[in-house]
Amino acid sequence: xxxxxxxxxxxxxxxxxxxxxxxxxxxxxxxxxxxxxxxxxxxxxxxxxxxxxxxxxxxxxxxxxxxxxxxxxxxxxxxxxxxxxxxxxxxxxxxxxxxxxxxxxxxxxxxxxxxxxxxxxxxxxxxxxxxxxxxxxxx
Amino acid sequence: xxxxxxxxxxxxxxxxxxxxxxxxxxxxxxxxxxxxxxxxxxxxxxxxxxxxxxxxxxxxxxxxxxxxxxxxxxxxxxxxxxxxxxxxxxxxxxxxxxxxxxxxxxxxxxxxxxxxxxxxxxxxxxxxxxxxxxxxxxxxxxxxxxxxxxxxxxxxxxxxxxxxxxxxxxxxxxxxxxxxxxxxxxxxxxxxxxxxxxxxxxxxxxxxxxxxxxxxxxxxxxxxxxxxxxxxxxxxxxxxxxxxxxxxxxxxxxxxxxxxxxxxxxxxxxxxxxxxxxxxxxxxxxxxxxxxxxxxxxxxxxxxxxxxxxxxxxxxxxxxxxxxxxxxxxxxxxxxxxxxxxxxxxxxxxxxxxxxxxxxxxxxxxxxxxxxxxxxxxxxxxxxxxxxxxxxxxxxxxxxxxxxxxxxxxxxxxxxxxxxxxxxxxxxxxxx
Lengths: 139, 432
Fold this sequence. Notes:
The complex is a heterodimer of chains A (139) and B (432). By secondary structure, chain A is mainly alpha-helical. Helices cover 53% and strands 12% of the residues of chain A. Chain A has a single domain, classed as Sufe protein. Chain: A, CATH 3.90.1010. Chain A is globular, with a radius of gyration of 14 Å. The two termini of chain A are 25 Å apart. Chain B folds into two domains: 128 residues, Aspartate Aminotransferase, domain 1 (Alpha-Beta Complex), CATH 3.90.1150.10; 271 residues, Aspartate Aminotransferase, domain 2 (3-Layer(aba) Sandwich), CATH 3.40.640.10. In chain B, strand 11 and strand 12 form a beta hairpin. Chains A and B meet through helix 2 and helix 3 of A and helix 11 and helix 13 of B.
């Protein structure tokens, strides 16, 4: 049985709890950015841009064997780290699981208070976009 | 070793003590506030003037038959007089209160457009304008069938101007000089309005406004100056500049947000139609016909931002007491030092290297996105602005998506510049 969304969220909360200061936290995000399975260049279309982000973020979802697989990219590294974190949480699950998942782990990670209002809005926009894909694939 | 050229007699610490917010901490670190081109902080004299108005004599102006209204009216008109003196306007009624530079420029474009623009006419702006000095003119051009033309800029971020007395640069701006081919991009016999920034918010470039205004005037072209970034950092003398209209905001000169000024030359303001209708701006109203009040009230419909006006008056008094020149000299020392120390960072490039600049340093770092840099500077207590700074056409000129911008005020210190440079190095190392 695969790991549930809630379990992955808890893993992330535990991971981030280990960091003492802002620099470690951001370095971890940057590492996640570097590990992101990026979107196919042919999918880097304006249609796949997430609205509401200061930097450009592309997000693509597809349904493979009943599960939604997300790929993404951004021209800013920290933003890419944030979207990588979300891909790790939501990718590889059924549309119903994604739609039913809570996003309060973001607050538990302590990320939101370290993000500017612009980025916090961008983060919400990314989650909304992922849920939109899930909704479309659940039909 | 780069040594700062600060004046030892300039008492930055006593000046800082007047700004309560500068004692705040951000993410557990001392605040370094380098976002002054977006808005400046407020000295206690301004905060107290606003506080005192609400506590002691809050009242509407120009209409109440009672003591408090008289006090509020007197305070408002004293502020208008202080502003008149500050920009050396001939008359206090040439100072129109607005909600800020954007409101001033919308009023200028709307009203002046209606007065002057006919189909086929042209409005000339520059490539370094803030959106607030582009979009209102696009509205006006669309409404009246006119065209928007753009003065190009050089790679240094200066206006690309022809050789005329007092101005360097290549030919092309003026079409009627002997031996020059007409240039459809610039001044023509259809140009009716020149709208230009005194200082670029993104680059810090100080434009040769006086010379351009003189040339426009010679051709009967109306001149509108966006003074948002100049008003707190340069001496502004509207009679010396010779412009018809000059727009600026209170909040960029240590006053509250939501208050600004449109200065207008009396003769032109008299001709311009009112832009908003309502109370305060009328003489007589019947359902058949309304006649308007005199200047400045014709342009001040509705209850004004009285507290803001009083705060703005207090800010002007504060600037005068501290001395604009001494503060500008300090900002220049900060600019020079920041330019040199930032330039030493590998891969960092300053955007905007004009010969004449105010204290604004915009830069890009190779391989680093400005929004990442802004986030990591914020984590270290340093407030800068990142992005396109409401100048997207200018970003297109430089073929970049945005910059990181540090902008200075008289309360900033050399130590803060050092902190920013160190924080930038640390952030860049993390991001590469």
